Amino acid sequence: MRVPSIGEPLDERRIVREAYRLAEHMMRDYRDPPTLVARLAAGVANGRQMLLNVYRGMVRN
């Protein structure tokens, strides 16, 4: 009589569990790189701030 399988053996489950733990640790601080739109928006915001600073400097003098 055959005994039905209960899934993966214990050592394989431990390997998979450790791999998941390692992957979670590696991906902990991952951030998607900014999109083109986000980079353009940041550039426009920086340019706007720079122009405001120049204008404020001219008004004060």
Record the SSE blueprint.
Blueprint: H1 10-26, H2 36-60
Mean pLDDT comes to 89
Spatial extent as radius of gyration: 28 Å
Number of helices: 2
Shape type: rod-shaped
Cα distance spanning the termini: 97 Å
Low-pLDDT windows of residues: none
Instruction: Give the number of domains.
Output: 1
Going by helix content, strand content and strand pairing, the class is: mainly alpha
Biggest sheet overview: none
**Into which percentage range does the β-strand content fall?**
under 5%
Element order: H for helix, E for strand: HH
Helix content: 55-70%
The count of strands amounts to 0
Description:
This protein has 61 residues and is mostly helical. The protein has one domain (10-60). It contains 2 helices and no strands. It has helices at residues 10-26, 36-60. The termini are far apart. The model has no long low-confidence stretch (mean pLDDT 89).
Structure summary:
The protein is mainly alpha-helical and 61 residues long.
What are the salient characteristics of this protein?
61 residues, mainly alpha, 2 helices, 0% strand, rod-shaped
